[in-house]
Specification:
With 158 residues, this protein is mostly helical. The chain has 7 helices and 3 strands, in the order αααββααβαα. Helix 2 (30-51) crosses helix 5. The chain is elongated, with a radius of gyration of 28 Å. The termini are far apart.
Amino acid sequence: MLRSKSGRPATETPPASPGPRRAARAAAEGELGALLARAQWLDAADTRFRQQLPAAVAAQVRLANVAEGTAVVLVPSPAWKARLRLDTALLLAAANAAGIEARAVTLKVVPPTVPAPDRPGAPLSAGARAVLEAAARSVADPELRAQLLRLAASGRTR
């Protein structure tokens, strides 16, 4: 019988990693499972909904919820809200064509999030640099030593 490096027979499949599968199985059970299923349904419904819209409109909207016959649609600005308020028939037709039973539409303005600009941190004090350099000298790991020295050097004023 052939054996692998681990000593198991070569025809035996290695055991599966329990981490991600166990977490997914636990998430699917109970109240969290219902929430996860709802989020997945809503994501798929949003995709179908936007496929039914003109490209210019689809790029600006997102289906946020469907409850009691009302589709809640997010728009990026008050101007888009005003424009689409006049064309709710288009949104209702798209929702119904996507298999979403909606009799009304609620538009909500949610401006797009803009990432915060990168701000340089405060310069390191001479004491902080000295501590980093001392820590670098005290570690045996060459990679960690190099990282600590690089960090200490990054705080120097030029």
